[in-house]
Write a structure and sequence with these properties.
Layout (H helix, E strand, L loop, with lengths): L1 H7 L12 H8 L9 E5 L5 H10 L4 E6 L2 H10 L3 E5 L5 H7 L5 E6 L8 H14 E12 L6 H13 E6 L10 E9 L1
Parallel strand pairs: 1-2, 1-4, 2-3, 4-5
Antiparallel strand pairs: 5-7, 6-7
Helix pairs in contact: 2-3, 6-7
Pfam family, one: Methyltransf_25
Keywords: Methyltransferase, Transferase
GO molecular function, one term: methyltransferase activity
Length: about 190
């Protein structure tokens, strides 16, 4: 499914391979371990990270997945019954949440291909994420290690730091193709 999406729309898929279970677990680890959290996954794709989120949530909380590609959204609907799949652009996050009566979310997990999104789009999406997060909420996303020194990656890191008071980088997830780090961001400015 993932490879078909890459071939169908290479300008919208940022990876060459789906995220590994190790990266999915790392991303999902920011989801509260108790209570009924509201979780949003941006760029849910073929469900590689969704597996980690589903495992972390179990039967708790509310889980929304935003996916732009219509075929991938259909795949998610069939395979992830707990996920409310929204076939939409992440730039519409504020409206998507408002339409569903959601005032705040506890965690936003992103698999979006940030390098393929222009600076204005990045700023718009992160603005919606910051507005949507509960005061103690968390945003997480990942970046490939080999690209961290590139101008786009450094610019994205500065944008994260301008949007959130705390931006932490995790250790490298070597069990991913390619190896990746995750950003854990808290306290929107």
């Amino acid at each position: 499914m993932f490879l078909q999406a890459v071939l169908r729309r290479p300008s919208l898929i940022g990876g060459v391979w789906p995220s590994s279970p190790a990266l999915a677990a790392r991303l999902a680890s920011v989801i509260p371990g108790s209570g009924d959290p509201v979780v949003v996954e941006l760029g849910a794709g073929s469900g590689a990270v969704s597996d980690g989120i589903t495992a972390r949530l179990g039967a708790r909380g509310r889980y929304l997945g935003v996916e732009l590609d219509e075929e991938l959204a259909g795949h998610l609907r069939e395979n992830y019954p707990r996920m409310e799949v929204l076939n939409a652009n992440a730039t519409e996050l504020g409206k998507l949440l408002a339409d569903r009566g959601i005032d705040a979310v506890d965690a936003v997990v992103s698999g979006l291909p940030w390098a393929l999104i222009g600076v204005d789009g990045q700023r718009e999406i992160l603005g919606h994420v910051a507005e949507a997060l509960h005061p103690h909420g968390v945003f997480t996303t990942f970046a490939y290690v080999h690209a961290l020194g590139m101008d786009n990656a450094r610019r994205f890191r500065r944008l994260l730091e301008a949007t959130f008071d705390e931006v932490l980088l995790t250790r490298v997830v070597w069990a991913n193709l390619p190896p990746a780090i995750t950003y854990v961001c808290r306290r929107p400015r």
